[in-house]
Structure formats: C-alpha cells, structure tokens
Amino acid sequence: MAEGLGDWDVLIVGGGIAGASLAYRLAPHRRVVVLEREAQPGYHTTGRSAASLSENLGSPVIRALTALTRPFLADPPAGFSPVPLMAPLGWLFVARADQRAAYQESLAEAKASAPHVRELGRAGALALHPLLDPDYVAHAYLEPDAMALDVDAILQAYYRGFRAAGGRLIADAEVRAIGREDGVWRLDTAAGTIRAPVIVNASGAWADQVAALAGAKSIGLVPKRRTAMILDVPAGVNNARWPEIDCVSGEFYLKPEAGKFLASPCDETPSEPTDAQADELDIAICVERIERATTLKVRRVERRWAGLRSFVADRNPVAGFAPETEGFFWLAGQGGAGIQTSAGLSATAAGLILGREWPALLTERGIAPANLSPARPMSPAQPGSAL
Fold first, then answer.
1. Which residues, other chains included, contact 76 with Cβ-Cβ below 8 Å and sequence gap of 6+?
2. Is the pTM of this model over 0.70?
3. What are phi and psi of 42, to 5 degrees?
4. Where exactly are the structural domains of the chain?
5. CATH number, span 4-52+151-220+314-371
6. What is the SS3 assignment for 323?
7. 91-144+222-310 — its CATH code?
8. CA torsion 316→344→263→123, rounded to 10°?
9. CA distance 335 to 63
10. pLDDT digit string (tens) for 29-66?
C-alpha cells in the first residue's frame, strides 16, 4: 500500500517555473505541496528555456504579465536571491527588404509595449552586431531594455522562499490517479497518496492529461517542440556586449551565451508530451538561416536540445478555476514565456486562489480574469508568431 503523504490546503502538480512561482506566492498563506514527476524540478521546459525577458514578444496578455514580472526580478524581496537574476542584453529585431510590412507591424507593436524601442537602420544594426550580413538587413530596431535571465537562480529562489514558508516539494511523484470525495481531492502518485481541497494543474505539456485524470474538461493544449543549439563564435571575437538578434518574421534568433551563441530556428512542431529531443532537420534549417543572415560559418554544433512549449488557441496563458470541476485550478499554456512572466502570472494566479484584488496594471491594459480563464473558448492551438 502506498505511503500517505498527508493532508494539505493546495496541491500543485508540476514543479517547473509555473508551479514553483505560485508555490512561493501561496506558501505564506496556505499549506502547500508541489508534486514533481521527475527526480528534480525544471527538467523539461523550464530547464531548456532561452532565458530572456522582452516586453515586445507575445500577445498583449503576455506583454502585460512580463511588465508585472520585470520589477520583481530586477529588485526582488530581501533574501530572495544571493545573485542578480537579470543582466543587460538588448534585443535587435531585423528584417529583409521583402519583410517591410512585417517589420512595420512589429515596430508599431513594440513601441506600444516597450517605449524605449528605437529604429536603427542597417548601419546602426551592423554597428551593434558586426556579424550581420549587410545584404540581409534592410530594417532594424532595438529594444535596449531586454534582459538575459538566470533561469536556475530564479527557479531556486522561488523554491527557497517556498520552503522557508513551510512548503514541501515531493519529487518522483508522477500522478497516477485522481479522485474527489466530500470536497477533498485524493491523488495517487508514485510517491504515495496525498489530499487537499484544491489542485493546481501546473504540469506543462502534461496538463490536459492531468485534467483528464481529474475529470476536468480539456483546454485543447498543444505542446510544440522548440529546438535550440550552442554555436561557436569566430576566433578572436568577443560577443559579450552584443544584443540578441531576432528576425521579425520569427525565422530564427541568435543570442550571446557565455562566450558562445545560442541559436534556434523558432520551430513549433506539434508533439505529444514527452522528453523532447532535437531533430536533425531543424538543426540544419537553423544553421542555414543563421548563415544567410550573418557572415558566421557554422563549423560544428557544440550542443543541441529541444523543449516543449504549450499553447491554447489564443496563445494566452490559462489561469483560473475550472467552472465544471470544483477545486481544480489551471495554470498552463505559457507558450515559452513562463520565465519572463513568472512573477506576474504567479501573483495573478495566487490572487485568484486567495480571493485578492486583480492587478491594477492588467486592468489598465484592458486585461480581465476572463482573458485567462479556462472557461473562455478553447480549441487546439494554431501556428502563429514565435515567442
């Protein structure tokens, strides 16, 4: 017979950035446990993140949640982290001559959400990133306030605060069955049985599967594979102060990373929930796009990996109680923005669970609980602009 793991107020299923940040918010107010299916939290999408913060990516909801997150990560509470969580990066958006319409649309959106954005033109772009091919770049703008994020430091900081407030993390605890009786959920896991009146479904690519175990309605979540790789820089080149490059049409990005480059073809290949692996074709596509846009000649790919980024139809996160399933709270569908929205989304979700006031910044931007609710119309996610 499985070991009993006790009674709690809130069970969070999933120990990645969504579950960790919400656990941090809730632990001072409720008895909270996080259940992680792997041996350590952050193994899947969180640990494979490109780790940047831009207020110029994603839907208006994502941008607002990012704006809520920035001040927290820039100046966290005392004792939250022994190291800085963000570092200056800068984000350079480039476009070819045939992408002028997409560039103008991207620039207008950027200026609306990131007010320090400025146009550079070809010469300005080449001055910031000398490897860009002059024949490729026709238009460019810079988001100077974009930041590099220390994903591991952020994740561990949330967990330190969570544990200090009395929370418990249980690893190797894949959920196998879920039932509800007399207003209390009972979860049978690989680590034992556990009970609470509220479940938070923060299980990433597995969120619809967890919902099915609980009898909750699917939100049409679609995990999509995203490929990344580490490339060498040319001999004698120091790229430490160069910005990240992103194509306005979402064809690639190229980011300085510890004396190397981190690159991606910005792929979105639908996938079953799994331990995602990089596909050789996606690697080749990425190399071709990088070599087309820059003078960089890729001699070898030092390291490659893939992660799953999960979306619903409108590409907004889902945060709220399932209307048809008592005590079942969704926290899913961050679509690759989980790190850069973590503080804002977790504060918002905690407010919904604790019955607190809706964040003023979201209200100012016309975003209401209905924009995140699992009760809004759902269908499988469709291809869209890369995040």
1. 85, 157
2. yes
3. 80, 15
4. 4-52+151-220+314-371, 91-144+222-310
5. 3.50.50.60
6. coil
7. 3.30.9.10
8. 100
9. 13
10. 999 999 999 988 876 655 556 689 999 888 999 999 99
